Amino acid sequence: MAASHPSDLAPGSHDPALALALAYAPRDARPVFQDLFALDRRLADAVRQASEPIIAQLKLAWWRDRFAQSPAEWPKGEPLLARLAAWDADISRLGGLVDGWEQLAAAEELTRDVAIAFAGRRARSWAVAASALHVAEADAVVAAGMRWALADLAQHCASEAESALVRAVAADLGHASAESPSLPRNLRPFAILGVLGGRALARERPMLSTGGDFLDAVRTGMLGR
Predict the structure, then answer these.
(1) Which of 190, 192, 193, 195 is nearest to 180 (CA)?
(2) Contact 145, 126 (CB under 8 A)
(3) 3-class state of residue 160 by DSSP
């Protein structure tokens, strides 16, 4: 955001919640999760590392242009694009994830509407990944994604006031709950992150910050809920 923004919003290999969730991904499904979160991280870096919002917008525009094209038109030499092109899904819908990051970058302040729109677009990118894994349960996937996206936003806000705003939004939308929608086994990483996100929002703390969080994540990884 122009005035203040989260310090490092997209999870990377250093993110313990993501690492734990990916550990429960079936081997044949794991690349899709890795690609999705790598894209999210690239977009986050474009926002976080830019000295001015216009610079972030220019970088994000490059990705938006790619998702507006057919993969056959994509430039060669970008490994992440090459991996995304292999998805069996309508990957043009990932342009919505770019839009979410651009809206966050351009916002003068974090408002309720910005938080909902940003988290929603992040969550809907999960539905694109689910379709690549031939799972059509978009509503449950997006619900789990909203829990994670709001929790991730809340724990990386620039101030406690912004974090409190995000948690209030989650509570109003019914996402501040340790319960998360049940998902098929090949979407187990999403189920884990949804549970961790809901717990973090309900308890007003970062994800995977207590032993109870870890046990709940492991239980979800093993049983699916």
Answers:
(1) 195
(2) yes
(3) helix
- Per the CB < 8 A criterion, the answer to whether 178 and 195 are in contact is yes
Instruction: Please tell me the pTM assigned to this model.
Output: 0.90
For the record, the structure tokens of 93 come out as: 């819908």
Q: Tokens representing 210?
A: 């207590």
Sign of the alpha-carbon torsion through 39, 40, 45, 50? positive
Residue in the structure block whose two tokens are 């977009």: 43
| DSSP helix, strand, coil percent of the chain (3-state; round to 5) | 70, 0, 30
Q: Which tokens go with 221?
A: 């990884």
In the predicted model, what is the mean pLDDT of the chain?
Answer: 89
Concatenating the DSSP letter of every residue in 102-146 gives HHHHH-SS--HHHHHHHHHHHHHHHHHHHHHTT---HHHHHHHHH
> Residue 51: what residue type?
S
Q: Helices in 133-187 by DSSP H: which ranges?
A: 138-155, 160-173
Please say whether the beta carbons of 209 and 200 come within 8 A: yes
- Candidates 19, 116, 104; CA nearest to 57 is 104
Q: What percent of the chain has pLDDT over 70?
A: 92
- Find tokens 């990051």 and name the residue: 101
**The tokens of 178 are what?**
């340790």
The letter for the amino acid at 164 is A
Give CA–CA dist 100/225, Å, rounded: 28
pLDDT tens across 171-219, in order? Answer: 999 998 877 778 999 999 999 999 999 999 999 999 988 888 889 889 8
Distance of CA 193 to the CA centre of its chain: 10
Instruction: Say which amino acid occupies 207.
Output: M
